Amino acid sequence: MKKVKPCVGWREWVQLPALHIDAIDAKVDTGAKTCALHAYYVEPYTNADNEQWVKFGIHPSQNSKVKTVECHAKLLEQRRVKNSGGYDEQRYVIVTPITVGNDTFECEVTLTDRETMRFRMLLGRNALKGRFMVDPGRSYLLRRPAAKNTTKV
Prior knowledge:
- By secondary structure, the protein is mostly beta strands.
- It has one helix and eleven strands.
- The chain has one domain (9-134): Cathepsin D, subunit A, domain 1 (Beta Barrel).
- 3% of the residues lie in helices and 49% in strands.
- The longest helix is centred in the C-terminal third of the chain and has 4 residues, at 125-128.
- It is globular, with a radius of gyration of 15 Å.
């Protein structure tokens, strides 16, 4: 018997546990190939093991700069990505666990300044494919992640 895929709406709550993001409102975007995460600054660095990492800041709440989370993640690569205006943009790419509803999985995420956008995160096809069905007429079909203590910077 085939496993029934959970259905997501056009927006859902997402958790990024390795980045200490307990809940971020994400737009489900089947037109975007990869996930994109708001980062208002991104600083690459080399760690003690000579690996390339990035440090970046996130304001996880929409329309608010009060809560700030500083994140560190291993850098996968830099990649040219077409932004929402159709222009090529060089972005840092990380791989991080994402929790959507009851499912947690690793996913590539590009880092970009989404300050002027309505959503701090896009959930792209790379996260949706083979895992979820999308109902574009509904919102928040899955549970909101439970709040935990988050490091504030």
